[in-house]
Each structure stands twice: as C-alpha cells, then as structure tokens.
Amino acid sequence: MAGLLGLSRFIDRINQFIGRQVSWLVLAAVLVSAYNAIVRFLGSGLPAYLPIPRASNALLELQWYLYGTVFMLASAYTLLRNEHIRIDIVSGKLSKRVRDWIDLFCHIFFLLPFVLLLVYLSWPWFLRSFRSGEMSTNAGGLIIWPAKFMVVAGFVLLTAQALSEIVKRLAVIRGIIDEPNPQHELPPTVEAAIEIEEGQTRD
C-alpha cells in the first residue's frame, strides 16, 4: 500500500501543478475575447497604419481553444480538490464512512471505465487529425490537432487522478491515512447528528 500511496502523491503533485498553471489561461482567454470584441466594434475606424491584428476567425478559435484547454486539463485538478458536482441534499445525510464507500464504488465502476473508454476513443481521433494536418474549415482558422490533443491529455490526466483517488479512498477506509480532502468532511455537528440517527435506527 505504501508504494501505491507514493504513486498517488506523485499523480496528485502533477495534477496540482498543471491545474494551477492552466488557470492562467482563463485570463488569456478573457483578454483575447475582449480584444476581439473591441477590434470588431471599432471595425473600419481603426487607422490602417496601426500594426495590430484585426478581428479574425483565428482569434475567435484561439479563445475557444484556451477555454477548452482549461476545462480539459483542470478536470483532474477539480477531482483532486473534491470540487466536482455532488448531490449534497443526499450525500449530506450520509455518514462519512458510507460516503467513502460510495465514492470508492463509483470511482471503480463508473468513473474509471468512462475515462479509459474516452482515452481509447480519443487517441485515434487525435492521431488522424495530426497526421492529416487538419485545419479549421473557417476562413483564416487555426490548425485543429492541438485542440484535439488537449482532449486526449485531459482524459489521461483524469484517468491517473481517478486511480489516485481510488488508492486514497481505500487507505482512508482502512484507516491508513487521514482524510486528504477537507471538503469531504461534514461539519462535526452534522456528522454527530447522523451518527445519533443511525444509532437510534439500529436500536
């Protein structure tokens, strides 16, 4: 188990680094979007001698690429931080141990097969685009394969993080490590209320 936990920590460090770095691409996307909107608004009012890029499909597609890259590469970081969407109205009524077992089951039987399937399907999809030098069908558009590679990379990182979460959840259930995600904990008063209710149910 110690070796698996070491691998888990390694995966966590990689996804934490990538997640924090790609967050800056949101700012880049906003700046590109704002620039494109301003230039389109000014249109022919811009002096012809100004050596600045005019609004174009390339800038519009760059904006999409940046947003898409953030979404794909930060997905694993979101899972690491335990900030993915949960149905709190249901999970909030369960004890932590029950939620740990639910997480373990869902990671093994739902998340992991799903991301492995998407890695399997997206790799040839990217490879065909790369080998053909696929370009956007829009006039002046960008080359497409880098965006498709981000899809593959995102699901590879998410697969690795799913494995890391499975290892950590097993270790938490077995009492080997403490809860690594504070977000996974319920407030003490809620946890105590659940334990009292479970005790009354058993009685």
UniProtKB/TrEMBL annotation:
UniProt-recorded name of the protein: TRAP transporter small permease protein
Presence of keyword Cell membrane: yes
Subunit composition and interactions: The complex comprises the extracytoplasmic solute receptor protein and the two transmembrane proteins.
Function: Part of the tripartite ATP-independent periplasmic (TRAP) transport system.
InterPro entries xrefs: DctQ, TRAP_DctQ
The entry's keywords: Cell inner membrane, Cell membrane, Membrane, Transmembrane, Transmembrane helix, Transport
Chain segments annotated as transmembrane: 21-42, 62-80, 101-123, 143-164
Main location: membrane
Lineage, top ranks: Bacteria, Pseudomonadati, Pseudomonadota, Alphaproteobacteria, Hyphomicrobiales
Compartments (UniProt record): Cell inner membrane
Keyword hit for Cell division: no
Start and end residues of each Tripartite ATP-independent periplasmic transporters DctQ component domain: 61-170
Highest taxon of the lineage: Bacteria
Membrane topology category: Multi-pass membrane protein
Family listed: Belongs to the TRAP transporter small permease family.
